[in-house]
Amino acid sequence: MKKIISVLVIASGLLAATSAKAQKIGYIRIDDMVSLMPQAAKIDTLLSKYQTDSLNGTLNNIVAEYQYKDSMLTKVDTSKTPKQVLNQLRNDVNVLAYQIQNWQTLANQAYQNKQQQLYAPLYDKVIAAVRSVAKEKGYTYVVSKDVFLVAPDGDDMLPAVAAKLGVKVPPALLQKPTGKPNQ
User: What is the dihedral sign for C-alpha 163, 168, 170, 171?
Assistant: First the structure.
């Protein structure tokens, strides 16, 4: 009975090892592929314009509104101003002061939201191309090159995905295939 169990364990181990070797693994850095897309330069220009026009303009408006409302509280005779109006002005000044003090955080959040909104279609397009190339070339697994420190041999899929999307890859990104990610 022990011999039969031993034979079954060895046979299942060999079967598992054989099927593991039949798996084809590829890797890619999605961000690298997205940055090569021609639309990425246009998006970067739009984001720069958004930073300059919208975010910086908004900060200027907030500062101007703060200065105006603060001057109404400090420079104008407020003895005849109703308490409700004064309370509202004080509240507004406090809110505006908070926004100014935390502007970098608020602006970064707004910028990241805009960036995600603009880049989402490109990421979707690249991921669809990766899936298509993986299916066409028989890849069982496709991993992000950035995630693994140690991984089994695999193929860099960047050139194939770039070809699928009609994007030229600069020679600097075309490394000699070592079969191992992150080397």
Answer: positive
- Give residue 129's Cα distance to chain centre: 18
Q: Do the domain assignments include residue 11?
A: no
- Is residue 6 in some structural domain? no
pLDDT tens, the chain, 183 aa long: 455 554 344 545 544 544 555 688 888 889 999 999 999 999 999 999 998 888 888 888 899 999 999 888 887 777 788 889 889 999 999 999 998 898 889 889 999 999 999 999 999 999 999 999 999 999 888 888 777 767 667 788 888 888 888 888 888 777 654 444 444
Whether pTM exceeds 0.70:
no
Q: For residues 109 and 116, what is the distance between their CA atoms, to the nearest angstrom?
A: 11
Residue 183 within any structural domain of the chain: no
- Paired tokens of 52: 């300059």
Task: Look up the domain containing 128 and give its range.
Answer: 25-173
Domain count along the chain: 1
Q: Tell me if 158 sits within 8 A of 33, measured CB to CB.
A: yes
Phi and psi (nearest 5°) for 150? -130, 130
| Residue 89, domain member (yes or no) | yes
